[in-house]
Amino acid sequence: MPELKSSITGLGNQALSTVPPSAIRAVDNKISNIPGIIKLTLGEPDFAVPEHIKEATKAAIDANWSHYAPSFGYLELREQISQYLADRFDAHYQADGEVVVTVGATEAIFATIRGLFNPGDTIIVPTPEFPLYANVAAICGLNVVTVSTAPEFVLTPARLRATLAAHPEAKAIVLNYPNNPTGATYTHEQVRAVAQILADTDLVVLSDEIYAELTYREDHISMGHLLPEQTILISGFSKSHAMTGYRVGYVAGPAALIKLVGKMHQFLVTTAASPMMKAAEEALRHGRTDGTDMRDIYRQRRDLIMGALSKAGFTAPTPAGAFYVFAKIPATMPQDDVQFVYDLAERAKVGVVPGSVFGPGGEGYIRLSYAASTENLEEAGRRIQAYAADLVD
């Protein structure tokens, strides 16, 4: 094993050194060796990729779709994305110049933040929120302003106005709805109120809508429809088609911004993988309704785990989208959410994520993913109830 030359031990990106590794993965890794544990930690659908998409992937490999694709992605896929966004959300983007296919939504977020902003710029991140946004912004040298949305878990007009007044220098705001980790999403009235306020600003809106097909109340309204002239729309196929390992996402927005995002994307990865893009094309050509059955099962699982948590003394707003429950730890239980999560894992053999890793407003909560089998959720519910009963005794 080589040892690093002593004279270069101080090398490293200073901004990167201030950002911890993924806290969600750290918790998942730490508890994974507990025998018999049921993990409700990751946002990983337990469904298989639909058969017609798998067949399209195999066919693409057999047809030698193995070479470099255009940097922005195959035009045929971008045309399908453009048509899908128009048909589904009344959000209109030209396939040529206003859409970039990325290596998952994660790369889309990095390419967008790195491509559009400079060190020292300020970005607003409502919390609780997926930690990636703030971490990527910090790595890129941006100033991150967080604003807690607890306990409603949606950004209210009053909170938004107050944040904008306190930070007139802000260049962008992140919106993620349906939300990870809370499962909250905006009603039509709420999202229109937010859009109306943002329309009077020069903020770029980074709208992560990857859970748009997983809504249980009202149909999703996209910021790409409400505020197209200043929105970067981020999405992908991981949640709607259970294609997490295929790593296909996309960015859509005004051409002047997409040109910059696309250039950064080119320098980061050159292009997404050719067979995976053909799989994504098939998903949109013939599988737009693939997620409907998944969504209906998720709704049943949501109700199942919500009932079990309620019996154990937890309170949580009913998730209106995605596949997460963000539950308040009962006052009768340890209130340090990190300590609680590890105690629950050791004693009840149920793995969840502490709410504090999702930023201000998440303290004292836990996130459970119900993108797990019904059998595992039923058993996890029984174990959590037994754990709660033991604490009372």
TrEMBL record:
<comment type="similarity">
    <text>Belongs to the class-I pyridoxal-phosphate-dependent aminotransferase family.</text>
</comment>
<protein>
    <recommendedName>
        <fullName>Aminotransferase</fullName>
        <ecNumber>2.6.1.-</ecNumber>
    </recommendedName>
</protein>
<dbReference type="GO" id="GO:0008483">
    <property type="term" value="F:transaminase activity"/>
</dbReference>
<keyword id="KW-0663">Pyridoxal phosphate</keyword>
<dbReference type="GO" id="GO:0030170">
    <property type="term" value="F:pyridoxal phosphate binding"/>
</dbReference>
<dbReference type="Pfam" id="PF00155">
    <property type="entry name" value="Aminotran_1_2"/>
</dbReference>
<dbReference type="InterPro" id="IPR004838">
    <property type="entry name" value="NHTrfase_class1_PyrdxlP-BS"/>
</dbReference>
<dbReference type="InterPro" id="IPR015424">
    <property type="entry name" value="PyrdxlP-dep_Trfase"/>
</dbReference>
<dbReference type="InterPro" id="IPR004839">
    <property type="entry name" value="Aminotransferase_I/II_large"/>
</dbReference>
<dbReference type="InterPro" id="IPR050596">
    <property type="entry name" value="AspAT/PAT-like"/>
</dbReference>
<keyword id="KW-0808">Transferase</keyword>
<dbReference type="GO" id="GO:0006520">
    <property type="term" value="P:amino acid metabolic process"/>
</dbReference>
<dbReference type="InterPro" id="IPR015421">
    <property type="entry name" value="PyrdxlP-dep_Trfase_major"/>
</dbReference>
<keyword id="KW-0032">Aminotransferase</keyword>
<feature type="domain" description="Aminotransferase class I/classII large">
    <location>
        <begin position="37"/>
        <end position="384"/>
    </location>
</feature>
